[in-house]
Fold this sequence. Notes:
Elements: E1 2-5, E2 8-9, H1 21-28, E3 59-60, E4 66-68, E5 73-77, E6 79-83, E7 88-91, E8 95-96, H2 99-105, E9 108-109, E10 122-130, E11 133-138, E12 143-144, E13 150-152, E14 164-166, E15 169-171, E16 178-181, E17 188-190, E18 193-196, H3 200-204, E19 220-224, E20 229-233, E21 235-239, E22 242-246, E23 250-251, H4 254-260, E24 263-264, E25 284-289, H5 304-308, E26 317-318, E27 331-339, H6 341-345, H7 355-363, E28 367-368, E29 381-383, E30 386-389
Amino acid sequence: MRILRPAVIATAAMAAFAHQALADDGDIAPAPPSIGAAVPLTYFGPAPSQVMPELIGPLQLLRAGEIDHNTGTVTLPLYEGFMESGESVWYIVTDTSDADNAAALGLNHSAKLTYANVGRAVRQARIENRDQRAVLVFESGTVDFSPEHKVVPGDAPAYFPPKDVQPGSVGDDNYSPLAVVENAGNAIYNAPMVAFGATADQLEAYCEGEADHSVVHDKVVHICPSEGTVTIALTAGFSFAKPVLYLSTDASDPLPAALEGATFAPGLADIPVGGDDSLFSSVERIFVSVNGPTGMDNPHRQGLTSALAGEGSPLNTLGGIPTVATDYSPLWDLNPYVWTDAAIEAGYRSRLTEEFDILGKVEQGFLTGLGGGAFGSIGFVVNCPIVFRFL
């Protein structure tokens, strides 16, 4: 991603919120239990989460991949499918409405995805036999990965809203990462595209070297067709005060797509929002601080102002995730919040990591929506499959 600041052109290494999981691991990961104890860390038993997933402790939720905490990445199976017109579609699979397949393949199960098949939000696909391989053939939806990813922050000190944005990958009008497999029980799969139209030989060049983001998704670090793997950068955040890592792959609008280093997926705009956990809602809420605390070394740092200033991920707060709640969906309904001047002057501004803490502060009048307006959904959907829970 490219972030332009006054008199400064930021390099990819300075991309504030696109690839910050490594730095954010140190920012959000819990301290070892041996601190302050009279025994070393080796004396402690396994985390309770290893006995029962719902208990406290680290837990990998998207088990299909291998996480590298040193680089803030996950390596997932890479799949090649095809368009009906013949082009190769390179994709990953992270979630499904099919509980049995989720358990068998190490995917996240999301019952809510059943309700996502509205308008262009879910593409049609079918399984075909190609040279004795079962492959998906997609009816519609393509992605152009050639645009240059760009975010031009607004004027200091707020930086938000940005002056200009350009997602690094742009889907056509029918593109959505969701697909229903019509000859496999009509289950819905979350299958974000990471490359389109490229041959295996072209992509093999990025197996070890730096990926060309004019060819592949901006979050791709390495892609190896010969090994059937793709390594993707993770994003740090929170869910019910638990620090988490997630993938950020697609968004329904160019603004969040550019801010997240994700693909602009117009089809996601057909998903109804604002319903949260109500009947037939396919979304969960994600809470984004706009003007949270700033400062690279500030333990309360959070929000878009901080991210646009180059300090790291905005550290968003997600709603329910597997093992914590029953209402998980990788489709997040974006709810931004703004600290009021009165709350800031009173010293209340801090890092918020839990949904009901945020909602309580809205109720108390310390937080509002954008521009001082009503708090709630602004109509944007972001596709952010959960990968790991630290606690």
